[in-house]
Design goal:
about 70 residues, alpha+beta, globular, about 30% strand, Ribosomal Protein S8, Chain: A, domain 1, 4-stranded mixed sheet
């Protein structure tokens, strides 16, 4: 499973980086990806909103609330 780590990324840059990451993984027919947000609620909300814009679903990884698993299909 491909992963994107958002540690050290400015909130204002996340949307663009996330769009590119999701698009590249959709083109390569990936089913799941992980996105590491850390504990920042603002970062989590940006990721959730972006994933929702694509009509995808994401869930926090069990026992790791700083990581989302996103279903691309």
């Amino acid at each position: 499973m491909n992963s994107l780590d958002l540690h050290g990324i400015k909130h204002s840059e996340v949307q663009t980086i996330l769009d590119q990451f999701l698009w590249e993984n959709m083109k390569s027919n990936q089913k799941l990806v992980s996105i590491i947000t850390g504990q920042s609620n603002q970062m989590k909300n940006i990721v959730i909103n972006c994933v929702n814009d694509y009509n995808m679903t994401c869930e926090e990884e069990y026992l790791n609330p700083g990581k989302f698993i996103v279903k691309l299909v």
